[in-house]
Design a protein that fits this description.
The protein is an alpha+beta fold. It contains 2 helices and 11 strands; from the N terminus they run ββββββαββββαβ.
């Protein structure tokens, strides 16, 4: 898989995959108005999901945090930070932990869509791959396709 070109997730959202990653086709579902892509970097999972959404960024973050903490043994950790992509999408990022795993999440809202990023793996693997994943997340772009 070329990792130097944007991958179309769905809903007008693209991301440049991290170098060395592969797409897990069993959990990747591109569509016109939504979509999900799961990249794997060794044992680390890097999931980007795009869904129609008409709420605020804080509400979208609260919704994702609730799903994370709704998994037995998982908790949100540390401080949330504001983040932005190279294309100007503003979001909020935080961390979480679970049994033997750590993770990070980020949420962006753009023009009636929510873009959720979740990353998980053991601490050693995460430490090795987070710089490449952060760089990839920074390439998230929303560009609605023009009809015609």
């Amino acid at each position: 898989m070329p990792t130097d070109r944007p991958y179309k997730i769905g809903g007008g959202v693209t991301v440049v995959p991290p170098p060395g990653s592969r797409i897990d086709v069993t959990e990747t579902r591109p569509a016109d108005d939504s979509g999900t892509v799961l990249f794997r970097l060794g044992p680390v999972r890097y999931l980007v999901s795009v869904q129609p959404y008409d709420g605020t960024l804080p509400a979208a973050v609260a919704r994702l945090r609730q799903r994370i903490t709704g998994t037995s043994g998982y908790q949100v950790t540390g401080t949330e930070l504001t983040v932005a992509t190279a294309s100007g999408l503003a979001g909020i990022q935080g961390g979480y932990s679970g049994p033997g795993r750590g993770g990070r999440y980020a949420v962006f809202v753009a023009d009636g869509r929510t873009i959720e990023v979740t990353v998980c793996g053991d601490d050693l693997d995460l430490g090795r791959t987070l710089p490449a994943i952060d760089a990839s997340t920074g390439t998230l772009r929303y560009a609605p396709e023009r009809a015609g």
